[in-house]
Fold each of these.
Amino acid sequence: MPINAAAALQKQKVSLVGQNKTAVVVGGTLGIGAATARLLAKLGCRRIIIIGRNETRGRTMLQRMKELAPKESDLVVEFVKADLSDSKGMQDAARVIQETVGDAGIDYLIMTQNGTPAGRNIKENADGHDTAFAVQAISRFALAYLLTTHGGLAPNAIVMSIANQGQTLDSLDIDDLSLKAQLKAGLGAPALFMNQSKRDSMVLDSVFEELNVRYPQHRYYSIWPGLVKTEEFDLGLVPGYIKIMMWLGLKLFGTTPDQYANFPVYLLLAPDAQDKLGSGKYFDRVLNPTQLGKWSKVPKNREALWEKLKEIVGVRET
Ligand SMILES: NC(=O)c1ccc[n+]([C@@H]2O[C@H](COP(=O)([O-])OP(=O)(O)OC[C@H]3O[C@@H](n4cnc5c(N)ncnc54)[C@H](OP(=O)(O)O)[C@@H]3O)[C@@H](O)[C@H]2O)c1
């Protein structure tokens, strides 16, 4: 029976007032991230830090969160401008986030930055990788890894990625994460788009499973949002027949960002979440437990990818 997250949060009178919690929402200027940040503000989170590139939207979000917060939460809001398109941007962002948060550490690190698969329109970043892939997947590894290993997280912190989950691209060559060989071979836009989407999901599954194995003192969740009609949702970016599938999907089970935000927030905050959902870390759009994709279940695949991502981001083991 799927969880009715909004009703459960209300029924259990979930509130963060007086708990002195700090949330960092990466990609919090828009869409699912912004809606999640608004709900955390409404529920009394003490401190919320929004990460994104767009300063105007960032400032608007700070104002909106202040309006929504209960007076007694005494909410402190901050915006950190960061571009997660390449390894330098990721390293700078991790450093500035940690400096901004200070010694208390992050209680909830929620990552919703969007790198929509580019199909055949791949743009290379400064490291020579597909920029969309860098934002969607590499930056989630970089921020989670750097903030975990450099003491940026509070004890019992929860790290959450909201993105595709559970797909697999078994043919992936970890020396060609940007799928340049497929682009060069002339693969059509819809097929390349699907493979990029599977690759993103598979890389994130592998990263989150490794995080859970390596750092059991924290919880690392990866959840799929389904189809959410965000402010800038643009079917025009989607090639071929996939556009029709997504249009239909939106009609049948699409949600708004504010409706959807109840699910990640339920998982983060509801006292009965772990009893109801078990110890799994991967969930679908209504918090049914999901499996890792086939490739990600193999430890040696994940370990090889982990080393490759460290090399790409330019981090050393600490
Ligand atoms: N919406 C859906 O139906 C859906 C379905 C499946 C999966 N997802 C996944 O769910 C996540 C959230 O999606 P969404 O629809 O909420 O996305 P969205 O509305 O496009 O918002 C994306 C956020 O990412 C930030 N961002 C984009 N590029 C960035 C960069 N280079 N550096 C830093 N921040 C960047 C944007 O902020 P700035 O513009 O301020 O930088 C914005 O706050 C994404 O990973 C998406 O792929 C969404």
Amino acid sequence: MSVDPNRPSAARIYDYFLGGTHNFAIDREVAERAYALVPDLPQVARDNRAFLRRVVRLAASRGVRQFIDIGSGIPTEGNVHDAARAADPDARVVYVDVDPTAVIHSREILGDDPRTAVLQADLHQADRVLSDASVRALVDFDQPVCLLLVAMLHFIPESPDLHEALRRYRDAAAQGSLLAITHGTAGSRAEQLEDLANLYVRTGTPLVLRDRAAILALFDGWELLDPGLVQLPLWRPDPGDPPVEDPDAYAALAAVGVLT
Ligand SMILES: C[S@@+](CC[C@H](N)C(=O)[O-])C[C@H]1O[C@@H](n2cnc3c(N)ncnc32)[C@H](O)[C@@H]1O
């Protein structure tokens, strides 16, 4: 597992937006340029983390106690296992990320916690993820699972392989399972977001800003829970959450699907 400090990484840039310290000068440079283009990016990152916690609570309220978080990133405050355990102390969480920095720091934080596992894998490697011994030790696929693909599918270009991988995760999941996705979208800011996408080319994981129809297609076979696919902070906000001032300009959509 090797970390290249000279190449910016999406995981470390995101860490910087969240106020984390697991990033290098090259990540900070790209993050600052991204911020200059889209000043609300750190807020969108925080909104993503808040969404994650709302989804985990929802899953727990439906009796779902096992979570597979793919593209889990560098652990920052309010991780999935913290939120899940607050709801159910026996919750099990598998973190999967392709980025070695994310995997190293996740392992550091989780240590030998027997109810969590960290796997370095690409989302496309569905068979590997689903059959991995550490995953099988924690996840009972006869029981519903919550699959979290939060702020990560916009790093994955459209391809038959992507849809095949999503189908495999869906086919492995029991009835009652949940799929939560948040995804960058251009909304009414196409030009600004295109400049941002160009900037991320340097990371090796270019941004793919899908439109509504393309994001909905990622939920093939899942039934969307209310309120459907909406701007991220509008997905079942907590009481007291601030309103979204200009929803059309908000750069990320979110939805949760259930297997019926
Ligand atoms: C913006 S971070 C999101 C982190 C976390 N899900 C959250 O919302 O706080 C995106 C993460 O997706 C990971 N990623 C990108 N492409 C991936 C792939 N093909 N397979 C697995 N992880 C991937 C990146 O390494 C990065 O850690």
Amino acid sequence: MSPESTRLQGRTALVTGSTGGLGVAIAKALAAEGARVIVTGRNKVRGDAVVADIRSAGGGADFVAADLGAGEDEIRRLATAAGDVDILVNNAGVWSSPEPTANITEATLLESYRANVVGPFLLTGALAPAMVARGRGAVVNIGSITGLIGGDKSALYNSTKAAVHSLTKSWAAEYGPAGVRVNAVAPGPIATERAAEAADHVAPVLARIPSRRMSTPEEVAAAVVFLAGDDAANIHGAVLSVDGGWAAV
Ligand SMILES: NC(=O)c1ccc[n+]([C@@H]2O[C@H](COP(=O)([O-])OP(=O)(O)OC[C@H]3O[C@@H](n4cnc5c(N)ncnc54)[C@H](OP(=O)(O)O)[C@@H]3O)[C@@H](O)[C@H]2O)c1
């Protein structure tokens, strides 16, 4: 089977955290539009399986192992291995379960910020200049509804995602004039295999939001494909909610 569409033919997309969860759906959706996808994460077994799935569906993909929390040498190594990247999706991130601020140690704080903020910051800094030099490119950051609102005992995770939204707007200002668009998707709860972990936390919310349900990974991936492609040619610095209406009500 060949890719379903050719909207992203000839482009290379790097999707962080594409060894599991939402990132797998994003990698597959970009490949289905013709992009060659670089799958990355720490787990080679799961990464190789995603690559095999994409190839067996007629798409192009390769795996590069990297730990985005390991600092700038590791991130530079990933960027070098990736080569010319046209689409960067900063998806990898870690969720922190609700915890009183006073209980959060410096180590936990730094671990979360390393994965959710420092990693995307350094990787974008490593890849965007080459996009600027070519005069085109797209970066899509995965933020969260939690970056748009406050949350009881959620200061850590919510603040990392607010930082992702803020970076999206500053990078739009920095890179947009050179032809590189930077946008974000802000998902609400997503029905991934790990959704059960947050089920108690999100149940009261789902009961009152317009759609009354979580998003599927494919619904969030569709928004990423839109922002990465030419249909979004004049969209810069947007934070697109895919949250069943949570942010609106
Ligand atoms: N799930 C939700 O309901 C939800 C809602 C809103 C926003 N989001 C956001 O969506 C994104 C994906 O979430 P998810 O639910 O799909 O998470 P997930 O199932 O836990 O998957 C996280 C992915 O990130 C990778 N990853 C984590 N730490 C990493 C590190 N230090 N270095 C490299 N890769 C790392 C993991 O790969 P390895 O294990 O192979 O390293 C995995 O592929 C995150 O940014 C999250 O904040 C999720």
